[in-house]
Structures are given as C-alpha cells and as structure tokens.
Amino acid sequence: MLHTDDIADKIAHQLAAAIEAHGNASLVVCGGSSPVDVFHQLAEGQHEGTLDWSCVTITLVDDRQVPADDPHSNQRLLREHLLVGAVAKARFVPLADGEEVSQISRPFDVMLLGMGPDGHFASLFPSMVGEAALLATAEPALLETGPEGSPNLPRISMNLAMILQSHLIILLVKGGEKQAILKAARTDQSLPVHALLSQTITPVQIATDHAGQ
Description:
Blueprint: E1 2-3, H1 7-22, E2 25-29, H2 36-43, E3 56-60, E4 62-64, H3 74-81, E5 91-93, H4 98-102, E6 108-114, E7 142-148, E8 153-158, H5 160-163, E9 166-173, H6 176-185, H7 193-198, E10 204-208
Parallel strand pairs: 1-10, 2-3, 2-6, 3-5, 6-9, 9-10
Antiparallel strand pairs: 4-8, 7-8
Helix pairs in contact: 1-2
C-alpha cells in the first residue's frame, strides 16, 4: 500500500529509471480533484532525485469532450496544475489527438488513476460493466461515450485493455467513502473498478491517505 504523500516520489523514480534505460518516458494521468496535490508536488520538484522532464511524454487516461479551455476539461486542469514549473518542459499529447496518442510507446511507464464514488475509473462507468470497454483481453483502444458521470458530458477514454499496457499502475483512493467502495469492489462485479482489481495482467498499486488501510 502506498501513501498519497509518496506518489510523486514513486512516479519520479519510475520515470527517471525509464529515461536512464530508454532515453524517454511516458506518464498517463487522470483528471479530477484527487491528483491535484500530486501534480503540484511534481511541478514544484517536491520529489526525490532529479528528472529531465524534456524526455517525458504526458497524456490523459480520459477527458470530457469539451473545448480545451472549458472549466470541465481535464486538459485545462493539467495545463493549470501539472504542465507548469519543471514539468512545463514535458511533451503533452491531448487525448483527443488519438493518432498521436497511439504513437506513444507502450507499455506506458506510469499510469495514475483515480476512482469515483460509483466505482468508475478513467471514464469507464457502471453502464459499461460487461462490455468490451472493461474487458482486460479486448483490443487496446480509445473509446468515445455519450454523456456520462458528473458532470454529465460526452467522454473520451482509454479502455481497460489499453490502461493495462503499463509498467506501473497507481490507483489513487482518497477518503473513507472511497475506501469502502474499493473494499466492496474486491468482490462486487457491478462496480467498474472490480475489473481493474481482479485482472492478472498488470499489478495495481493502491495509494490511499488512510494509513494502514
């Protein structure tokens, strides 16, 4: 179990190792409020070691299909909170540019996911349980949805199979309510995150602000 305070260190270490081995690295992140503290720590260099962000490509695991400057845009969130300071040197690829996203080398080096109170992650919602979007063995792909979630907007998201093409997956779960959802999802197949937790392709590291959980 990883504490939320240690996520930035974990991400920086993984990216630095990839750069040392291959000359470049990739980071895929979620939107929402949960990862903002992590974004600030990365942008302000509050992590162990040095990292050449000019060698890192960053994209989103999902986004709302709205203009890039819309308040509900995850791309806007990243530009305001992550792609600043030291991280401004990184290459950012909007998820809407599907062809360019598909050219990012896989497996991704780091995948940072959040989870909603309905057990969704990325933009993979309960309405998709039982469909290819949440099938670990499906063809990796980007998918577009109708209005989903809160705010109720059309979405674009990596499917589970594409998410699993990662060396390191961190699932960020903040607060007691979400801890309870996570516990239920170990066995409750109606919760989308169950598909992530039960697959055996890529290990998932849980990051929580509840020590000892």
